[in-house]
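Anyone opening a protein record will find just a pair of labelled lines. A complete record is shown below as an example.
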Amino acid sequence: MSHPMGSPVGTDQPNAARVYDYVLGGTHNFEVDRQAAEFMISLVPSTRKWVRMLRAFLQEAVRLLVEEGFDRFLDLGSGLPTQDHIHAVAPHARVIYIDIDPVAVAYSRELLAGNPNVRYLQADMKRPETFLNAPEIRELFGDERRVAIGFNAVSPFFTPEEMRHVMQALYDWAAPGSKMFATFETKAAGKMTPRMAQFLAMFEQMGQPFYFYTLEECQELVRPWRPDHRGFRPLVEWLGLPPDYITEEDREGVDLEFYGVILEK
């Protein structure tokens, strides 16, 4: 894989978006990303299973929201829009992807070139004030603010203060009737293993500290958004997987659980 502009920008260090792409089975990654991903999987073997469930939830949530009439999607921390991202699941919808990483943005714009229904903004998802009034949003969405917002696989990268700020800012901006699909990676409070600690250290090295929360903390942090009638549910339930799909070993000694929810204003 080469940089779309012809230079190997950012290829000497692993990148979280490209690592995620590799774990999903994608091809938009470099050897440094593959090595980092395989090391992380060696530390937490259930990583590949959880990551694939996260992408499957995104697809399921988008399908549900399209059925409810949503045709505008604003997605935070999008990474690389490959492997059946929003625009592939809802090809007639208008989609705005957002990520702060310049390498991920450059590749993504190359991948999406020629698609009139999609824009990719380089912005910090933790600072909505920097992108909510961007001209690209007005250009693509017009004055419509009843939108679907993606907050998938990004909650671990927020401190509690950052998450409260983002949730409030998005709530204030969005019109009544808007919805947000979100996932939350949780573990038992106080539980940690040496391998999990090393796994978290890998994210620190990539410049993206990783935080686990309890389910109760997540339910508090999403306010003023409210869960719709489906509530917070483990991803295995959302996806209709067998109850034993996630084994005790998959919980990695810290009671790992991944929840999905569709929030509403």
Residues 126 and 166 are 6 Å apart (CA to CA). The beta strands are 72-76, 94-99, 118-122, 148-151, 179-186, 226-227, 233-234, 257-264. DSSP finds ten helices and eight strands in the chain.
